[in-house]
Write a structure and sequence with these properties.
The chain is α/β, with parallel strands linked by helices. Among the domains are: 105 residues, Immunoglobulin-like, CATH 2.60.40.10; 156 residues, Glycosidases (TIM Barrel, Alpha-Beta Barrel); 78 residues, Golgi alpha-mannosidase II (Immunoglobulin-like). It contains 17 helices and 26 strands. The chain has an eight-stranded parallel beta barrel with strand order 9-10-13-14-15-16-17-18. A six-stranded antiparallel beta sheet has the order 19-20-21-26-23-24. The longest helix has 18 residues. Pfam families: Alpha-amylase, Cyc-maltodext_N. This is Glycosidase. GO terms for molecular function: hydrolase activity, acting on glycosyl bonds.
């Protein structure tokens, strides 16, 4: 693809006259797509002065905007076979520029690709902080911020090659799916390591590598029967994005007349999206307000914008052979626009999966955003979003394992009450469950480095309904406190990811005994989960916690698993008579963690801060 783009640039430089094409996106498409009417965005000085014609490919429409530097050319690609199709730009009937638009051969069964699901375990990586596989790209001329590993908020040099180098580590841990925070170019002057302020939606940030390297990562994962999820940002772009510097239309972004240079910060009140009592201004300020002055808010109500975002997402799915998307700040988008975006992608790939970040504080509010929501019907709304993130469970996890006593509102009752609201979700299996991520305090910081408490937390998210997600380094006890030390502290470098690191925690003999205790427990649990379908799609039956001991069963027609979590500070006796309705016919089981046989006829004891996962 790089060679093609170089040739593209050369031809335009050579043939260019009064108009000079600087961008053409997407630069190619695929045969056999449901989304076959492709709107290419052409950008260059006074490009709107040119007429456009094509050979063997139909031009359905040419759209001009108030900005003469843009043309939007809609092509009909239906029934076309792979090959190149000349597009000619003329001025006064004289050929000025020429481009061969390519239709590529699509992968076999691409439309039927199977996305991540509840059989998977997801590992969330912040690539700049995971592993530096290629020190030569740490600082690049084409982007502003340079590497400075001493700066906790700076670029540290982790990259795609570093991830590729450790795919075997992830597979051995029991991980089946990789979610990386965004890898597209972020050319802000500072704090670009998180890459959520993107300046080019068709280009991997050169400090991470190239588009080709991203494809190599995908191939390496698929070779090992693993999946790749792209972190996608629809709500905002970087202020340094070349399109923001030369807006195609005045309403490409949300500009506030009463704001500072058009900027007004979001009120972050996502409830205004579905609140039947909400005022229009509160709803508008949530959706149309900016996350930050460096992140202009994108207007999905503009059909040109929406087409661009839809095509870009489909392009990456096809190009990189993706298995899913995680959408940042999903509920801050225009809710009708993002629903159309989601519906179109899922229409192209009916077995695909997209999980949206909906950071809300109640199950009813989160469930509004899942496809076919019962709550959504109240507002006559369907997001078409298959999966959401269980932030209420995350909130419970951050409190209950530090609460040794239980009442109606503390300890394991927090878990019980969370799952009591599962009826609100249209698809309870397709929910992301997690103890921490890149925006929250480290779970092992919250648990103050107590490995036994960590074991309880990881047991819970690995055995309950939904899709478990681990944050990189949780499995070795990494800590970090954003409240005291800022975001950089929860995004520390993984030890061993850099050549001269004093410790290499990717290797068993490089980890401390305590780190191995974290790692070994996580690995054993995830490897077991991978091969236990009843945990993936079975039903759940749970019982009121007693003495801070929570017991639940995952079951289907062929198997039952009993999970017991003793969150108290002392050994507890579990009375099996309470569970007769589901234990009928079973007299014993084996806790796969300890390989201990458990007698279920009367009662059994379980040590403090211990969990059992009993196969009946």
């Amino acid at each position: 693809m790089k060679k093609q783009l170089y040739l593209f640039a050369f031809l335009f430089c050579y043939l260019g006259a009064n108009a000079q094409i600087q961008h053409l996106e997407p630069s190619f498409w695929w045969e056999g797509m449901k989304y076959h009417q492709v709107q290419i965005m052409v950008h260059g000085k006074n490009i709107a002065n040119l007429s456009v014609s094509a050979k063997n490919i139909e031009i359905l429409e040419v759209t001009k905007t108030q900005n003469p530097n843009y043309l939007f050319v809609t092509l009909e690609t239906q029934n076309l076979t792979s090959g190149t199709y000349p597009i000619t730009f003329k001025k006064n009937k004289k050929v000025v520029q020429h481009y061969n638009f390519e239709i590529k051969t699509r992968r076999i069964n691409s439309s039927q690709r199977k996305g991540f699901d509840s059989s998977d375990a997801i590992y969330l990586i912040m690539p700049d902080r995971f592993s530096n596989g290629n020190p030569d790209n740490d600082s690049m001329k084409s982007v502003t911020e340079k590497a400075d590993r001493k700066n906790k908020d700076g670029r540290h040099g982790g990259d795609i090659q570093g991830i590729i180098n450790h795919v075997d580590y992830l597979k051995d841990l029991g991980i089946t799916t990789l979610w990386s925070t965004p890898l597209l170019e972020d050319n802000e002057p500072v704090t670009t390591y998180h890459t959520y302020a993107q300046s080019d939606l068709y280009k991997i940030d050169p400090r991470f590598g190239t588009n080709k390297e991203y494809l190599s990562l995908s191939k390496e994962l698929h070779k090992k029967d693993m999946k790749l999820v792209m972190d996608y940002v629809t709500n905002h772009w970087s202020s340094k994005h070349w399109m923001i510097q030369d807006l195609p239309t005045p309403d490409w972004i949300h500009v506030w007349a009463d704001g500072d240079k058009g900027f007004k910060r979001s009120n972050y009140r996502m409830t205004s999206q579905f609140d039947t009592n909400a005022s229009n201004i509160d709803s508008k300020e949530c959706m149309d307000g900016w996350f930050d002055s460096s992140m202009p808010d994108i207007n999905q109500q503009n059909p040109l914008v929406l087409n661009y975002l839809i095509q870009n997402a489909i392009w990456w799915i096809e190009y990189a052979n993706l298995d899913g998307l995680r959408v940042d700040t999903y509920s801050y988008n225009d809710k009708d626009g993002i629903a159309k975006w989601t519906k179109t992608i899922m229409g192209e790939y009916p077995n695909f999966n997209i999980v949206g970040e909906v950071w809300m504080q109640s199950q009813a509010q989160i469930s509004f955003w899942q496809k076919d929501s019962k709550i959504g019907k109240i507002k006559n709304y369907n997001s078409y979003l298959p999966s959401v993130m269980d932030f209420t469970l995350h909130n419970a996890i951050t409190q209950m394992f530090n609460e040794d006593n239980q009442d109606w509102n503390t300890g394991m009752m927090r878990a019980y009450e969370n799952f009591a609201n599962d009826f609100l979700y249209p698809n309870i299996d397709n929910i992301l469950v997690f103890a921490a991520n890149h925006d929250t305090n480290r779970i092992n910081e919250i648990l103050d480095g107590d490995v036994n408490k960590y074991k309880l937390a990881i047991t819970l998210i690995s055995t309950i309904r939904g899709i478990p997600q681990l944050y990189y380094g949780d499995e070795i006890g990494m800590r970090g406190d954003k409240n005291k030390h800022g975001d950089g502290d929860i995004r520390r470098d993984f030890p061993g990811g850099w050549k001269n690191d004093s410790q290499n925690a990717f290797l068993q003999n490089g980890r401390t005994p305590k780190q191995n205790e974290y790692h070994n427990f996580t690995k054993k649990l995830l490897q077991w989960r991978k091969n236990t379908p009843v945990i993936h799609t079975g039903k759940t039956k749970h019982f009121l916690p007693i003495n801070n001991v929570y017991t639940y069963f995952r079951y289907d027609d062929t198997k039952k698993v009993m999970v017991v979590i003793n969150n108290s500070n002392q050994t507890q006796t579990v009375n099996c008579n309470r569970f007769k309705e589901i234990l009928s016919g079973y007299s014993s089981g084996v806790d796969f963690i300890s390989n201990q046989k458990i007698n279920l006829e009367t009662s059994f004891s379980i040590k403090a801060k211990t969990s059992y996962v009993i196969e009946l």
